[in-house]
Amino acid sequence: MNANQSLGISSKVPDRIYDHLKEKIQTGVYHPGEKIPSEPDLVNELKVSRNSLREAITRLEHEGYLVKKHGIGTFVMNVKVDKVNAAIDKLYSTSQLIASQGMLPGATDLTAVLTQADEVVSEKLEIPTLTPVVRIQRKRTADGKPFCWDDSYFPVHASLLDLDELQRSVSLMDYVEQKLDIKIDRAIANLRPAISDEFISKELNIPVGSLMYLVEQVHYLSNNVPIWYSRVWYPEEVITVKILVTW
Q1: Which of 4, 67, 138, 182 has its CA 20 to 30 Å from the CA of residue 115?
Q2: What's the rounded Cα separation, in Å, for the pair 133 and 129?
Q3: What is the pTM of this model?
Q4: How far apart, in whole angstroms, are the C-alpha atoms of residue 162 and residue 187?
Q5: Which residues span the domain enclosing 125?
Q6: Statement to judge: residues 20 and 41 lie in one domain
Q7: What are the tens digits of pLDDT across the range 195-233?
Q8: 76, 100, 126: which is the final residue of a domain?
């Protein structure tokens, strides 16, 4: 759209403003850290109302594309991938979560080793401390860009140490259910804020001290036996968590 073209006055104007500004961010016209034009300048350039512009900008803020700094202006966030909406009332694999937003899930930096359960792992999997377990770590990607870091523990099974097979399977949940001939019935998750350390920051290409969501999750079979304990670190900028409240 050129600078002299109006975005119109219909009820869908905020959507078109949103698409227009988002495209400028994603194509690099507005660079990460750059201050976007002021509200009066954008109203004049796009020939739209202040209310429609504010609605579009608020939506871009909520999705992590923009941030307002009081008394200074509105700035472009460092967006690596589209922010994913995640509801915590459903059991999804990370691959399903990424694919549901129209992006291609992937995995890199995979390791699978035999280790011993520490106190935390033994409590989560309800096994004695120092019991042998398989630890699988990997970086998950969305459209080839870093999305999260996954650290998982399982009871020992030969298939979980087969790196070649693991690398061919993007979804760890699908792989586990198929190779172990089980069906994961449910999971209990604990969500809390965290700060990225040097290791996580290097793996996900984010600054040390970045705000994260840490999701600790125990997966259970239908007979209440825990089969999988995971810790997944999500940069705050790539995911929006939605909580379903009913009464």
Answers
A1: 182
A2: 10
A3: 0.63
A4: 25
A5: 84-242
A6: yes
A7: 999 999 999 999 999 999 999 999 999 999 999 999 999
A8: 76
